Please model this.
Amino acid sequence: MTTYTAMNLPGNGTGDTTGYRSELNSTLEMMTNAGWVRTADTGQLNFDTVVKSGTVSYVYGYSMYYFNDSQHSTFPIYLKLIHTNSTGVYFETKAEIGHATDGVGNLMGWKYPWTATDFGIKTASSSAYYYTAGSLSIASWGNGYSYFHKNMGTNSDGGTFVGLQREWDDSTGAVKTGGNYTIYYNKIGASIVSALSVIRAESRYLSTTNSGFCMVPYGRTTSWSVNNADIHRHYHPYPLLTPSGVFCTYLSPDINVGTTFSTQLLTGGSARTFIATGVDRTSVGYQQITHRLAVLWE
Model:
């Protein structure tokens, strides 16, 4: 289990060649520190030689990664990023998740494409890549889980995040071996959790955009207790609802972004350390901006 922090990484903008190279390499830095390893697939985009294009929807190329945990040999997870310009000539990234690669950049068999988040911050008024002053980036990973959040800033509007958790046993806290997993990410232009839960044996998935993973009783926006913070478990469908040992919801008046705290999520586990990310609207139905995402931080 490892954690990693960085300050003021290059973000997204209309940018130039130097800015785009910096952005790509800083994203690779975050992914590496979140347990993702770049594959040997041929034809991948060279982050050090790419040249900025002014063409709308231009496709620069792709990069391919695998999650490097103990189940990689039996239940591998591959992430393919397609690096493009948007319709406004901003840098954007699309993504596919899959379970095998042919070695030349194609995911084989089952795969799921999604419109990924911008890997940085973009602006219509800036002619160069930039970041929010004082913004914090974090990465954390261990067996069966991963999270990186680039330029998360000081509130719910900052940065890019991608999280992964394999199915864990609620009674023991052990990572199960069936290959099921859930991906968390934010959609383009918003810091709201979207997710994809994969039932590996059936090659089925359940996806949600702009929705939540837990219930906050009475939809309250502040804790009832004056001495203790409200912490709420997340659940993933495999297909039965299974509690998460990596992700949970806190109420933002209780805990500040970047603050760590201790709580026990799994029945058979013990208290572990989590960090508040500021990502909002993680609860079902209520869509409260005070219902925010925390992740395992060990």
Q: What stands out?
A: The chain has a mean pLDDT of 83. Residues 2-210 form one domain.
